[in-house]
Amino acid sequence: MSDRLPESSLSSRASQDPPSSSGDGSPEPILPAKQAAKPWALTRSPRRIKKDDVPLLRWPDQAPFGSPAADDHIRTIVENFLARFRTPTTIVSYRKALRGFFDWWGSDGQADPLTVPVLRAYQTYLVHTVEPRTVNFYLATLRSFSGWMVDQGEFPWNPMDEIRSLKIPKGFVRDSLSEDEIRQLLQSMPKGGATKPAQEMALRNYAMAVLWCAVGLRSIELARAQRRHLNFEQGHQLLKIHGKGDDMAGKPVVLEPWVMAPLTTYLEYHDQWHQPDGAGHARPAHAHHPLFCWTRGPGAYRSRTHNPALTRSCRPIGVRVIQNMMRDYMRQAGLLNQLIGETKNVRRITPHSLRHSAATIALEHGAPLHQVQDMLRHADIQTTMLYTHNKERITNAAEHRIPDFTTPPDQEINTN
After folding, report:
1. Superfamily (CATH H level) for 170-400
2. What are the angstrom distances between the C-alpha of 349 and each of 87, 179, 364?
3. Angle of helix 381-395 versus helix 353-364 axis, rounded to 10
4. 13 with 103: CB under 8 angstroms?
5. What's the mean pLDDT in 204-212?
6. Which percentage of the chain shows pLDDT scores above 90?
């Protein structure tokens, strides 16, 4: 079994495979699980053998990897498994992970039967291809899929019980930006443009960056934010967050006046351009109107859904677009590819670093730990405590108390 496959294969078709549809455009009904698994089924051996030697699946006959028949078999069994989930982002992520596995397994044409050693080889391939947290996510998805196959009677046991996830140290969080660096980032961003689309894009991106830095949102939470999530309670502006894994917006973050100012400026400019109807009459924003929209102008395209907000050219921005946008601004501000002291190592700064920056700066300015936990929406306060651990471990480290053994005692320099 070869483990050679370009890294891009994990995502080349993984997120591009929605359920197939019939000629009239309606989605084809999902086959019963037993029928979907039939092409992959193996004849079980009655004799007792080691778990490592038990073949669990076989590649379907007359369906070489990459052929339409193979793609149809993969899509059918994957979509049967995904039918149990409701959240669209979960379905897309799981589909990508499973398609990545099937692409790897069948990459040599007629794949070997699936066994525990094959799954271990897949884990080794992932370790050398993607980040450790991504490895664990792909393995967790495969573990859930295998458990579903056990429930369908196709697996005698869950083979992923033999595969351990990677142990990821939790002692430190990723690098964050300082207050001066955040100011440098925001000051470097354009605040206007020569055309309506350029002006709106500049206002939108600046408002999004200020919000991101102020309350430590995730990029997916920025993409999911809608106008109806804005609220006003007890004299403060709030934004209810639709977090990852949640079915709807729930816990709020507080928006200070300096955060609301650029957001209000953007929304007012957007409404002046997008909201009037054909006769020039103003229309109220739809309840599901995205907080941050594409800037293609009114009437530039038609919605493929029944969401009235989209028919007004107000389509929400995707997560990847948001991340790439912020990465470009960070690069222009000179915050990427910085060396760490004299180590020659590159400082690990990404758009997600803005979330860590908000937490770190809030704690440095005296915010209670439990309030920072609520702002970041951490389920476990131990996760939030990592931010205080970072500072305490370095600034008050025991190593600072060790005397300099390379100099005579009378030449020791007290660094405390």
Report:
1. Intergrase catalytic core (1.10.443.10)
2. 30, 14, 20
3. 70
4. yes
5. 95
6. 28
Contacts of 401 (CB under 8 A, 6+ apart): 416
Q: Which residues are 236's β-sheet partners?
A: 233
**Residues near 392 by Cβ (< 8 Å), separated by ≥ 6?**
none
Residue 41: Cβ within 10 Å count: 14
Residue 112 confidence (pLDDT) above 70? yes
Prediction pTM value: 0.65
> End-to-end distance of the chain based on CA atoms, in angstroms?
58
Residue span(s) of the chain under CATH 1.10.443.10 come to 170-400
* Residues sharing a CB contact under 8 Å with residue 1, sequence separation 6 or more, in sequence order: 108, 111, 112, 118, 121
**Closest to 40 (Cα-Cα) out of 75, 11, 68:** 75
Higher pLDDT, 219 or 175: 219
- Nearest-CA neighbor of 319 among 220, 247, 401? 220
3-state secondary structure 220-231: HHHHHCEHHHEE
The Cα–Cα gap between 124 and 115 comes to: 15
CA distance 378 to 381: 7
Quick: pLDDT tens for 145-189. 999 999 988 888 899 988 888 887 665 566 788 999 999 999 999
- The three-class DSSP label of residue 4 is coil
pLDDT for the residue 173? 60
Q: Are 292 and 248 in contact (CB under 8 A)?
A: no
How would you classify residue 366: left for phi > 0, otherwise alpha for psi between -120 and 50, otherwise beta?
left
Q: State how beta strands 252-255 and 230-233 pair.
A: unpaired
